[in-house]
C-alpha cells in the first residue's frame, strides 16, 4: 500500500529535520547521489570517514537473470540511480570501483505475507523487494532515508565506524517483518557463499557469519545484531541442498523453512532469517548491526562500544559531526553547483582506505590469521593503480594523521604475504592481484619525502626492495634482464614496463632522500626503461618480444584485452612517462611536435570498435579518456612543452563537458576517490603529475577561492581573480604577493602556507610559464 503525499510530507519533515535546520557546515553541500548514475559506481548510503561499515541500499542483483554483463557493471556499488526497486540494505560497499564484491548481510523490512526471495525488478511483488521513488528518498553524509512504497515503511540508516543502525517506521501495519539474507551480495560470481550460519541468542540478539568467494577468495565477516523490540516470531530459511544445512532439521528437505521456535540456529550456503514483531505501528523498530572480520564476540564488542544505546538521532548527529569536521579542512568559494561538486568530491575522497580493525585492536591479516594492531590503525581497500596518482597525495594534506597508519598497513601486508609483496589491489585481508605496477612504493615515497615518517622506515626499505625485485610478480626478472617486459612473456607488457619505470623513479627519489646513493643510482637507471619500448619508427610506445622485435600488429588506437596495454591504447600510454616528461618530449621531436601529439590525442576520434573490449575506457574527448586513470595527467603535459595556456584550455574543456553536480556527473567510475581527487586538485588549479617529485603542474583554477587548512595552524589559499566562463586563461600569478613565473608549484610552496593568486582573462598569456626554467622538473635533474 502506498502512503498519501500528506503522510509522506509529515514523515520527511520529521526525519529530515536534522538535515534542514540550521545546517551551516560544509555537509550541506554534499550530494551523496552524485556518481550513482552513469558509470560513477558510488553509493548513497551511510558511512563515516574511513568507516568499515558502508550501510547503503541495493537496487538490484543482475545475477538473478534479468541483466547482461553491462548491467552488472553498472551496479558495482550495489545501487544505481536508474533503478526503481530496492532489495534491501547491506553493510559493506565499494565506492566507485570497476569491479564488484561485498554487500554483506542484506536487511529488508516488509509487511504482509513473508517472502523469502528478492523477486525481480520487473515483478517486485513476487519477492521481498520494494518499489521506491527518488522523490521520496533523501540523504546527507552519514545518513540515508527512503520510502519503501510497497510496504508503507519509512527506512532510515546511519552508521559509526564499525556499526550500522537501522530505523524502520511501519506507518500502517501493526505487524512487521525483517528479512536477513546471507545469500545476497554485490557480485558477478556464481556460488559466492562458501558457508554461513546464524544463531538466535535471545529475543533481542542474533549473531551470524559468512564466508564468500568473490573477487576476494574465502573472505570472512561476522555480525552481531540487536533489536530494540523483542522478536515475537521467527523463521529460519535454509535453501542449501547440503544435508548439514540446518541444525535441528532432519536434513532431507531441499528447501527448509523452520518455524519451530525451539530451533536456535542454522548453517549452510543459503541461509536467511525472518524476524517478526508485533505492535510496530507508530513506534519505530531499531536494529544495530556490528561487523568484525575476526569473530562474533568482537562484532558484539564493536556494537556495544560504538552504539551502546538506541538513540538513532544521536548516532546520526555524531556521523554528521565527523563529516563536518573533515569537510571543514577545506573552504570553497564559488557557485552552489561548484560547491556541490567540490564537497561531494571531497566526501568521496575521505571514504577509503577504510578501517579494518576492531575496537580491541584485532584484525584479520592477509595470511588469514588474527593479529593485534599495535601502535597503528589498520586499514584496507588499497586500489593503488588508481589512487597513487592523486588520492594519496591529497590525503597527505587533508588527512595527514592517517597516512602513516595506511602505510603501516601496507607494511604488515608485506610481512604477512606469502609472496613478500606490498599490496597491489587489496581489500578485506585479500590480495586480488588486479591491475599492474607496484604503486605502493609511490605512496610510501611521496609521504616520506613530505616528512610523514611515523612508520618503520627500515621495514619500508626492505618491503620496497622485495617488491621491486620479486621473482614471482609480473615478469620482474625479464624487466630487469631486458629493460622492458617482453610481449611474448606477459600481456599488457608495454603498460607494465612504463609503470615499473615510474615506480622505480619513486624508489630512487626515496633512496636519494635517505642517503642510499648507490641504490638511488640503480633505480634512477631503471626509471629510464621507458625508452626501451618507444619505437622511433612510429613515434609511439610499442610492444616488443624477447628477441627485440617490435609488435607487427601494432595499431596505436586499439585497446585490446590481453594486448600490450592495460585499459588503454598506445595513443594514451605513449604519454605515460610522468617521471621524465622532458625526456619524452625529446623522443617525440621537441616542444612543437609534442604539442601536436597532445592535440591529436584530444582531437582525433576514437571509434567504439577500438575500445569495445574495455568498459572502463569512458569520458572521451577524442582519444583522451577521462573516465580511466592512464589519461588523468595528460592535460597537464602542455606545461612541460612551455604551453601552459593549452593546459588551461583542456582543463576547462574537461570540467565543462565531463563533470557536473548530477547523479551522472562522473565521467567514469570514481575508483575509490581518484576521480574526485583529480577534481579537487584541478579545481584548485594544480595537479601531481608525478607523485614523489613533490611538484604540481599548474592548470587553471575552476573555482574562485579554495583554502586548504594544513597542519600547524597554517593554510594555503588559491584565489582566482576575474574567473568566469570566458576568463579561463591565467594572465599572471603571485605567491604571497610576489610574482610567480613557474608553471608548477612545489610541496614546500603549499605547506609554507599563504596565498596563490591567479589573475584570469579571456585571452591566453602565451609568455607566462613558457621558459624552460619555468617548467616542472624531470628525471634528468635527479641523476
UniProtKB/TrEMBL annotation:
Keyword Transcription regulation in annotation: no
Boundaries of every Glycosyl hydrolase family 92 N-terminal domain copy: 29-292
Limits of the Glycosyl hydrolase family domain: 298-762
Pfam families for the chain: Glyco_hydro_92 (PF07971), Glyco_hydro_92N (PF17678)
InterPro entries recorded: 6-hairpin_glycosidase_sf, GH-type_carb-bd, GH92_a_mannosidase_put, GH92_N, Glyco_hydro_92, PNGase
UniProt keyword terms in alphabetical order: Signal
Protein name as catalogued: Sugar hydrolase
Species for this entry: Pseudoalteromonas aurantia 208
Amino acid at each position: 500500500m502506498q502512503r498519501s503525499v500528506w503522510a509522506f510530507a509529515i514523515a520527511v519533515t520529521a526525519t529530515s529535520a536534522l538535515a534542514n535546520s540550521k545546517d551551516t557546515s560544509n555537509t550541506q553541500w554534499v550530494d551523496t547521489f552524485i556518481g550513482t548514475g552513469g558509470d560513477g559506481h558510488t553509493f548513497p548510503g551511510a558511512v563515516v570517514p574511513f568507516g568499515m561499515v558502508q550501510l547503503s541500499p541495493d537496487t538490484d542483483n543482475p545475477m538473478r537473470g534479468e541483466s547482461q554483463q553491462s548491467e552488472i557493471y553498472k551496479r558495482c556499488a550495489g545501487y544505481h540511480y536508474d533503478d526503481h526497486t530496492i532489495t534491501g540494505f547491506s553493510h559493506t560497499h565499494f565506492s566507485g570501483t570497476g569491479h564488484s564484491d561485498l554487500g554483506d548481510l542484506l536487511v529488508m523490512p516488509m509487511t504482509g505475507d513473508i517472502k523469502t526471495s528478492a523477486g525481480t525488478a520487473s515483478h517486485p511483488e513476487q519477492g521481498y523487494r520494494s518499489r521506491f521513488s527518488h522523490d521520496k528518498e533523501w540523504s546527507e553524509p552519514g545518513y540515508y532515508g527512503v520510502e519503501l512504497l510497497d510496504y508503507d515503511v519509512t527506512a532510515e540508516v546511519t552508521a559509526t565506524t564499525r556499526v550500522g543502525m537501522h530505523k524502520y517506521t511501519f506507518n500502517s501495519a501493526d505487524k512487521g517483518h525483517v528479512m536477513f539474507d546471507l545469500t545476497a551480495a554485490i557480485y558477478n560470481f556464481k556460488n559466492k557463499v562458501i558457508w554461513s550460519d546464524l544463531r538466535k541468542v535471545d529475543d533481542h540478539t542474533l549473531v551470524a557469519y559468512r564466508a564468500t568467494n568473490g573477487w576476494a577468495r574465502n573472505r570472512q565477516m561476522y555480525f552481531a545484531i540487536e533489536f530494540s523490540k523483542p522478536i515475537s516470531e521467527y523463521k529460519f530459511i535454509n535453501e542449501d541442498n547440503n544435508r548439514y544445512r540446518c541444525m535441528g532439521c532432519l536434513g532431507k528437505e531441499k528447501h527448509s523453512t523452520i518455524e519451530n521456535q525451539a530451533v536456535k540456529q542454522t548453517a549452510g550456503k543459503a541461509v536467511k532469517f525472518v524476524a517478526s514483531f508485533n505492535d510496530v505501528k507508530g513506534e519505530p523498530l531499531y536494529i544495530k548491526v556490528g561487523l568484525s572480520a575476526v569473530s562474533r564476540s568482537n562484532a558484539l564488542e564493536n556494537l556495544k562500544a560504538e552504539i551502546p544505546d538506541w538513540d538513532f538521532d544521536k548516532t546520526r548527529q555524531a556521523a554528521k559531526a565527523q563529516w563536518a569536521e573533515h569537510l571543514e579542512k577545506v573552504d570553497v568559494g564559488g557557485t552552489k553547483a561548484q560547491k556541490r561538486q567540490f564537497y561531494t568530491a571531497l566526501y568521496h575522497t575521505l571514504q577509503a582506505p577504510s578501517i579494518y580493525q576492531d575496537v580491541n585492536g584485532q584484525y584479520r591479516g592477509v595470511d588469514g590469521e588474527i593479529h593485534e594492531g599495535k601502535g597503528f590503525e589498520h586499514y584496507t581497500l588499497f586500489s593503488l593503480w588508481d589512487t597513487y596518482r592523486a588520492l594519496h597525495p591529497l590525503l597527505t594534506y587533508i588527512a595527514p594523521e592517517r597516512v602513516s597508519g595506511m602505510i603501516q598497513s601496507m607494511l604488515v601486508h608485506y610481512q604477512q604475504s606469502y609472496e613478500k609483496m606490498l599490496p597491489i589491489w587489496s581489500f578485506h585481508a585479500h590480495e586480488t592481484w588486479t591491475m599492474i605496477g607496484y604503486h605502493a612504493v609511490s605512496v610510501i615515497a611521496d609521504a616520506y619525502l613530505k616528512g610523514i615518517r611515523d612508520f618503520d622506515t627500515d621495514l619500508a626499505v626492505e618491503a620496497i626492495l622485495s617488491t621491486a625485485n620479486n621473482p614471482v610478480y609480473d615478469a620482474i626478472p625479464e624487466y630487469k634482464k631486458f629493460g622492458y617486459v617482453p610481449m611474448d612473456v606477459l600481456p599488457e607488457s608495454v603498460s607494465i614496463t612504463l609503470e615499473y619505470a615510474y615506480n622505480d623513479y619513486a624508489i630512487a627519489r626515496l633512496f636519494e632522500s635517505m642517503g642510499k646513493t648507490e641504490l638511488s643510482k640503480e633505480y634512477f637507471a631503471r626509471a629510464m626503461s621507458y625508452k626501451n619500448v618507444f619505437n622511433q619508427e612510429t613515434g609511439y610506445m610499442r610492444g616488443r618480444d624477447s628477441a627485440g622485435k617490435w609488435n607487427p600488429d601494432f595499431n596505436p588506437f586499439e585497446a585490446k584485452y590481453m594486448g600490450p596495454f592495460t585499459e588503454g591504447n598506445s595513443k594514451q600510454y605513449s604519454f605515460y612517462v610522468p617521471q621524465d616528461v622532458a625526456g619524452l618530449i625529446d623522443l617525440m621531436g621537441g616542444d612543437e611536435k609534442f604539442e601536436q601529439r597532445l592535440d591529436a590525442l584530444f582531437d582525433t576520434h576514437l571509434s567504439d570498435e577500438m575500445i569495445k573490449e574495455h568498459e572502463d575506457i569512458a569520458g572521451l574527448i577524442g582519444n583522451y579518456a577521462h573516465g580511466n586513470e592512464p589519461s588523468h595527467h595528460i592535460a597537464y603535459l602542455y606545461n612541460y612543452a612551455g604551453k601552459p595556456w593549452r593546459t588551461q584550455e583542456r582543463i576547462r574543456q574537461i570540467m565543462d563537458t565531463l563533470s557536473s553536480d548530477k547523479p551522472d556527473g562522473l565521467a567514469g567510475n570514481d575508483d575509490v576517490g581518484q576521480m574526485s581527487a583529480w577534481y579537487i586538485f584541478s579545481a584548485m588549479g594544480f595537479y601531481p603529475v608525478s607523485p614523489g617529485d613533490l611538484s604540481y603542474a599548474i592548470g587553471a583554477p575552476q573555482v574562485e577561492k579554495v583554502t586548504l587548512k594544513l597542519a600547524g595552524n597554517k593554510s594555503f589559499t588559491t584565489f582566482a581573480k576575474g574567473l568566469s566562463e570566458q576568463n579561463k586563461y591565467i594572465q599572471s600569478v603571485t605567491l604571497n604577493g610576489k610574482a610567480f613565473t613557474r608553471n608548477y608549484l612545489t610541496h614546500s610552496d603549499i605547506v609554507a602556507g599563504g596565498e596563490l593568486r591567479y589573475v584570469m582573462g579571456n585571452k591566453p598569456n602565451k609568455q607566462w610559464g613558457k621558459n624552460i626554467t619555468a617548467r616542472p622538473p624531470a628525471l634528468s635533474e635527479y641523476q
